[in-house]
Every structure is written in C-alpha cells, then in structure tokens.
Design a protein that fits this description.
- The protein is mainly α.
- The protein has one domain (about 5-140).
- It contains seven helices and no strands.
- The radius of gyration is 17 Å and the shape is elongated.
Length: about 140
C-alpha cells in the first residue's frame, strides 16, 4: 500500500479515537455532565452514518481518491474546530459531527475499494483479507 494512503487512514482513525481520551479533560475543565459527553459521542455517530453510506456510493461513481482526499481535508478542518473546544459545548458538538462525517467519508471508500479488489471466489478473498488486510489496499492505492 502507498505510504501516503496508509498515513491518511492512520491519521483519520487516530483523530476519530483520540477524542475519547480527552473526555476526562473536557469533563473537568468545561464542567460537562455525563449526558453531555454522551451527546458528543452521539454527534459523531450522527455524522459517521451518512458519511459511510454516501461516500461509498460517491466513490463508486467518481473514484476513490476524488472522495477520500476532500474528506481528509474535512477531517483536518474538524480537528481545527475541536482544537477550539475550550470555548464551549457547541464547538465540541460541531467538531464531533464534522469529524464523524469525515471519518465515514474516508473509511467507506476504503472498504469499497477493498471489496472491488477481489479476484478470487468469496471464500478465498475473505480468507486472504483476514490473513493480510493490507493486500486489499494494494490495488486501490495505485488507482
């Protein structure tokens, strides 16, 4: 797999999961209650689902890179919004919603790309992807 694609996927996944480690800080510094923290997790899921559904279809029509690259820029923008999270709950909510959309828009074309790389029957492809998950990305990263 292309190193730039690997880095892009790693950074998007990192940003999506890094938030949960900051919950303690948000709770202490901003005084957020547990229900507010749950709403922030829900906002991420609310953005993630449309990103997964719509980006997969769009990448089939326009190509993987045409969807993934703008989505990765959206993830950077969402990180910038989250960097200003100390200004209040609304900023965190917007950042989580945008980051969910960006994550879904990056990961869905990746999954679609790995599915389109199958050349063998399903059983062998499933076995191969279980043993070497990166092999499905080889063809996608060159597209």
């Amino acid at each position: 797999m292309n190193r730039r694609v690997e880095l892009l996927l790693f950074m998007t996944g990192w940003g999506a999961n890094h938030f949960s480690t900051l919950l303690v800080v948000y709770r202490k510094d901003l005084g957020l209650l547990p229900p507010a923290l749950g709403i922030l997790f829900g906002a991420y899921a609310l953005g993630l689902v449309p990103g997964l559904v719509l980006a997969g279809r769009a990448s089939d029509r326009r190509g993987r890179r045409a969807v993934v690259l703008p989505a990765s820029l959206l993830a950077i923008a969402a990180s910038a919004v989250l960097a200003f999270g100390e200004h209040g709950f609304g900023v965190l909510l917007a950042g989580r919603l945008i980051y969910g959309l960006a994550t879904g828009s990056v990961m869905s074309p990746a999954a679609s790309g790995s599915r389109s790389c199958r050349r063998r029957p399903r059983v062998r492809a499933a076995r191969r992807s279980r043993c070497r998950p990166a092999s499905a990305w080889d063809r996608w990263s060159r597209a």
